[in-house]
Amino acid sequence: MPKSTAMRVQKHRDSLRASGLRLIQIWVPDTRKAGFKKECRRQSLLIKHDTEERDILKWIESVSDDEDWE
Fold first, then answer.
1. Cα(7)–Cα(13) distance, rounded to whole angstroms?
2. Is 58 left (phi over 0), alpha (psi -120 to 50) or beta?
3. Tens digits of per-residue pLDDT, 18-64?
4. SS3 label, residue 2
5. What is the DSSP string of 7-69?
6. Which of 50, 29, 51 is nearest to 40 (CA)?
7. Which pTM does this prediction carry?
8. Which of 16, 31, 35, 45 is deepest in the core (most CB within 10 A)?
9. Half-sphere exposure of 10 (CA within 13 A, CB side)
């Protein structure tokens, strides 16, 4: 008798847990939602000339390891 989808998923999750992993779920913005692009632009424009934002970006660039990135 074939296993149900739920049984296969549970077996897979049990295997991952046994290997030291744990399941987490997070909610993220829906990039397909109407108005998403417009809201991103609005927020970007709010910090476009912000000195603190520029300093933060410079710091991120200085500590980032991007060697071997293509």
1. 10
2. alpha
3. 999 999 999 999 999 999 999 999 999 999 999 999 999 999 999 99
4. coil
5. HHHHHHHHHHHHTT----------TTSTTHHHHHHHHHHHTTT-HHHHHHHHHHHHH---TT-
6. 29
7. 0.54
8. 16
9. 5
Ramachandran region, residue 29 (left: φ > 0; alpha: ψ -120 to 50; beta: rest): beta
Taking the C-alpha atoms of residue 43 and residue 62, their distance in angstroms, rounded to an integer, is: 24
Q: Which token pair is 18?
A: 């046994």
* Angle, CA of 69, 50 and 32, to the nearest 5°: 60
